[in-house]
Amino acid sequence: DAKTTQPPSMDCAEGRAANLPCNHSTISGNEYVYWYRQIHSQGPQYIIHGLKNNETNEMASLIITEDRKSSTLILPHATLRDTAVYYCIVRVVGANSKLTFGKGITLSVRP
Amino acid sequence: DSGVTQTPKHLITATGQRVTLRCSPRSGDLSVYWYQQSLDQGLQFLIQYYNGEERAKGNILERFSAQQFPDLHSELNLSSLELGDSALYFCASGGGIHLTGELFFGEGSRLTVL
Fold first, then answer.
1. What's the half-sphere exposure (Cβ side, CA atoms, 13 Å) at A13?
2. Each residue of B22-64: pLDDT tens digit?
3. Of A57, A66, A107, B92, whose CB neighbour count within 10 A is largest?
4. Which residue of B43, B72, B105, B111 is the best one to mutate when testing the A interface, meaning the one whose CB has the most A CBs within 10 A?
């Protein structure tokens, strides 16, 4: 699986949008971008994934650049409960492959 | 609630002992994945089973073993425990009827070795 690079931490104000960047410059054509988060010591939680088109669900939006070398996870209205470690993962779908977690980015939402 | 059940939630034991962690996957999921998360390390992939057969192996110690049973639940066996085995152990499931490729994680089993 391709490697991803994320800044170690960021913060944002409650109610504002949180934009979490991720670089995956070696991504292959059959690899998807996945985002998970881990709140404190709970089990990681799936947020969203995409191949090349932008995606949106009830939790977040995923913007993938045209060259697919980077992406941004957007939490439109961050709340205190969104404080967590967010992991950007590149993974081939269809092979039931494992997720390889990096260090992720720690998002702190301040009141 | 992810639908993945792990037991026990907490376990305290002594060095040299053996423990078994259990995981029940989401209904319809055929794959089970085990991960270890220590304080100073991230989520480390240990092993994956698919429909009863080992599919992939990660950084799993020889003292650790796992299996997936016909009803698709899985057990992770940790033996000759050392202080450094203290960690959160997560199970995830996927690869069933949910074809979008997400993995669903349980809440983990926290192992403390004294």
1. 2
2. 999 999 899 999 999 998 788 999 999 999 999 999 989 999 9
3. B92
4. B43
